[in-house]
Design goal:
This protein has about 325 residues and is mainly beta. The chain is about 10% helix and about 40% strand. A hairpin with a 4-residue loop joins strand 17 and strand 18. Bound molecules: zinc ion.
């Protein structure tokens, strides 16, 4: 029974900006902060307990110390920690990429596949991202367009606005465009197949690796499937809106005008990623940019303050 603030791991990929430090108060001295991994048990970047008696433990060590019951009964079906939550600041375009599903990823990469969801926290006017194809194409056309650099003629390029949500099932071709700041909720995986990188070079001056063959194996050559829009639920002084629910994660947007009563029952932990405002969750203070991990079985707790957040849990499937 605990409500814990986490410290993220940071990534300085070439396309990152400085907003996670400048606007979200992240304590990181990288030149560019592309990503902060706000809820992570991944070997490539662990979140760490930020205060209290377990301060300094990685989230993985915390779970080992307190037992898997802190994750809740709905997580028993996952061998490993199920999800990874990030903030992503795209100052420049990300590569055009695709992620494999569980079957392919576990066979070829030895980790989970990746279905993910984006919540647009903020964006520049006119910002766009790439989300699947405009229409279905054949495997031959896909190969030909990769070869002659005309792939972007058949991809679905979408103008984005603050608060937009994109559900990106494994196999969906996608790219975050420049000027977009996103909260990403995804399966616990770091497997990405890059298919087009705008001819850029990495920090070592060489083009970043492409994974065209694997991408051709896993890409669904059709329009992406968006999660259906669901109306917001009104509570006394706050609202919650379901953004997406799948076997890996269930995500809500919360808008709290002063006080909300939330509950972490025995079935799942919760993660609250604070996007605006400040307050307390139980006795734990938070501000914009913080990630709050609530162990399963904590029960009812109050969130006090004016804030916007995304709440993630694992449902039964
Ligand atoms: Zn992705």
């Amino acid at each position: 029974m605990a409500i814990i603030r986490l410290r993220p791991a940071f990534k300085d990929y070439i396309w990152g900006g400085t907003r996670l430090r400048d606007d979200f108060g992240k304590d990181c001295d990288f030149d560019k902060i592309a990503e902060s991994w706000e809820l992570s048990c991944h070997k490539d970047g662990d979140s760490v307990v930020a205060d209290g008696e377990d301060v300094g433990l990685t989230l993985r060590q915390y779970i080992e110390r307190h037992g898997r019951a802190v994750l809740g009964t709905n997580c028993e079906r996952f061998e490993d920690f199920p999800i990874l939550i990030k903030l992503i600041d795209a100052k420049d375009n990300l590569s055009v990429q695709v992620h494999p599903d569980n079957e392919y990823a576990q066979r070829v990469e030895g980790e989970y596949g990746k279905t993910e969801m984006w919540y647009v926290v903020d964006c520049d006017p006119g910002a766009e991202l790439l989300y699947g194809f405009k229409h279905e194409i054949s495997k031959e056309e896909f190969a030909e367009r990769i070869g002659n650099n005309t792939l972007l003629e058949v991809t679905n390029n979408v103008p984005v606005h603050k608060g937009d949500v994109f559900f990106i099932e494994a196999g969906t071709l996608h790219a975050i465009g420049k000027g977009i700041l996103i909260a990403e909720i995804q399966q616990n995986s770091n497997t990405t197949y890059r298919i087009y990188d705008y001819g850029r070079v990495g920090k070592d001056g060489k083009p970043r690796e492409l994974h065209v063959e694997k991408a051709q194996d896993v890409t669904v050559l059709a329009p992406a499937k968006q999660y259906p829009d669901t109306p917001a639920e009104q509570h006394e002084g706050w609202t919650s809106k379901l953004l997406a629910r799948c076997e890996y994660f269930t995500v809500y947007a919360l808008d709290i005008g002063g006080m909300a009563e939330l509950e972490a029952d025995g079935t799942s932990f919760l993660d609250l990623l604070i996007l605006e405002g400040e307050g307390t969750a139980g006795d734990t203070p938070f501000k914009k940019g913080d990630s709050i991990f609530v162990t399963a079985g904590t029960g009812r707790f109050a969130v006090n303050g004016k804030c916007k957040a995304v709440l993630t849990r694992i449902d039964k499937f």
